[in-house]
Each structure stands twice: as C-alpha cells, then as structure tokens.
Amino acid sequence: MCGIFGYVTNKEEKLGPILIEAAQRLTYRGYDSVGAATINDGRIDLRKDVGKVDAVAAKYNISDMCGSRGITQLRWATFGEPSQVNSQPHLDSDGDMVGAHNGNVVNNVELREQFIAEGMTVRSQNDGETCVHAVERYINRGYEFIDAIRLAYGDLQGDYAFVIGRADDDKLYAFKKGSGMVVGLGEGFTCVSSDLPSILPLTREIIRPQESRSGTPCRQDEEGAPFVFHRLRHELSRRAGWLGLFRAARWQISHPCACAAVHPTIRARRRA
C-alpha cells in the first residue's frame, strides 16, 4: 500500500519540511521507497530513492526543497522492483509534468507498451509513471491539460488515487478511482492525501471527495465562487472523482449536491 501527499500554496516557500513530515505520517501504510517533487518558476525539482524517509531526506537534502507546489510519495513495490527509477514521483517524457499515485493500475503493462510505441520516454516499470504518460498522451494529441487528465482517467483501469502537476501551470490536480483521498483546506494552502494523518497537523478543515463527482476550488479573490463539485459524465466513468487544486488563499466549502449543476457536462476541448 502506497501513500501520496500534494500541497499547493499561494507563495514560494520551503516545502521540504512539510513534505517530509507528511511522508513520515504515511509510513504506517508500508513502503520501500520515498520521493518528493516541488514546482516553482517553471521548473520541477525531483528527488527520490529506495530507503526510509529520514535516510532519503538526508541523502538528497529534501528539507531544502522550495516551491509553490509539492508532491511526496511512499511506494510499496507492485510493478517493478524497489529501485530509484521505480520510485515515485515520476516525470513525463520531457520533464514538464510530475505525478505520483497510490493503488494499482491493472492495465499498466499494456499501457506501457502503447506509450513506448507512441514514442514516449518510459523510464520505469512502475504504474505511477503510467499515470503520468496517460495524461501526456492526450497533451501530445492537442488537448488542454485538464481535458487530458479527464481522458487519461478513462484509460487507467484499477483502484488508485493520483496527483499531478505541470511546470507551466499554477495548480495540482488529483483524481481517484476506488482508493481513498482526503483534502485539507488551510490558510493560504490546500493539500490532498491518501489519508488523514498527513493532513491533520496542518488543518482540521477536511473534504472527502465523492465518487462520481469532480471538484474545482475557485479563487475567492478573483472568482468570488465557493469550492464546488461537479458531476462527471457517465461515459467517462460513474466512479470517477478528480479534484483541481488551485494556488489560492482560502477555500469556502459548499455541499457537493448543491453545486452539481455548475458544470453539468465535460467536453474535451482541443487547442486551436
């Protein structure tokens, strides 16, 4: 069983200590590898390896990692042996996106073969990397990032939760199928995790995303809108749940059912 944690703040800050503590609070889930990634000013800083949280953090100076968005992951080997290359998070072919998952993508082998045939750079055997390339596939086909994420969801079979960010985007996105996911809302930050222990030291304002809905927190200072959930179209999956985490100052929460009609349909939009 793996664990993920994502953190988005409204300013650049030292995220390493936050990511290390979150990872330590997920160790009860079992793991053999640990990694962290931060995103800032269009650059992704990725550090990971086999070993205990404290040992890997010390070896790679994870406490010094800075940015406005961060991801950490604890991996328990399923696809691929414990190794640095199989550790998470993972990059896409060009190093423009980074993501991590927990759970199992059961069609991992089939998808890896497809991605290699499509010319992507597949570095590991791990299904967490497969999640990243599933999004990359639709980026390469001309879809906007959020639509590529929605379409990738339809290709990934299994039970999992996944968080991904892009160097040139100021958000993280997370979606789930079957696996647990918890969202924390704090003063100047939003976080998402596989489970509560990594979030409770940061905030007690909690959302548990529901299956068959997606959520988009809107910036209060620009949109004047609350945190809302939207229904996913059944042709993508009745069990889908994705969550866009905006770089924002403060979220307000409204009941998901009350907001289900804000964006009642999802259409994949190609870039001009």
Please report the total strand number as a whole number.
Answer: 14
**Class in CATH?**
Alpha Beta
Query: The CATH topology is what?
Result: Glutamine Phosphoribosylpyrophosphate, subunit 1, domain 1
* H/E element sequence: EHEEHEEEHHHEEEEEEEE
Strand content: 25-35%
Shape: globular
Helix content: 10-25%
Structural class: alpha+beta
Give a short account of the largest sheet. 7 strands, antiparallel
Average pLDDT: 79
Number of helices: 5
Question: What report would you give on this structure?
Answer:
With 272 residues, the protein is an alpha+beta fold. The protein has a single domain (3-208), classed as 4-Layer Sandwich (Glutamine Phosphoribosylpyrophosphate, subunit 1, domain 1). It has five helices and 14 strands. It has helices at residues 16-24, 53-59, 108-117, 127-140, 145-155, and strands at residues 3-14, 33-40, 43-50, 66-75, 90-91, 97-105, 158-166, 172-177, 182-186, 189-193, 206-207, 213-216, 228-231, 241-245. Strand 7 and strand 8 (172-177) form a beta hairpin. The radius of gyration is 17 Å and the shape is globular.
Keywords:
globular; alpha+beta; about 270 residues; Glutamine Phosphoribosylpyrophosphate, subunit 1, domain 1; seven-stranded antiparallel β-sheet; five-stranded antiparallel β-sheet
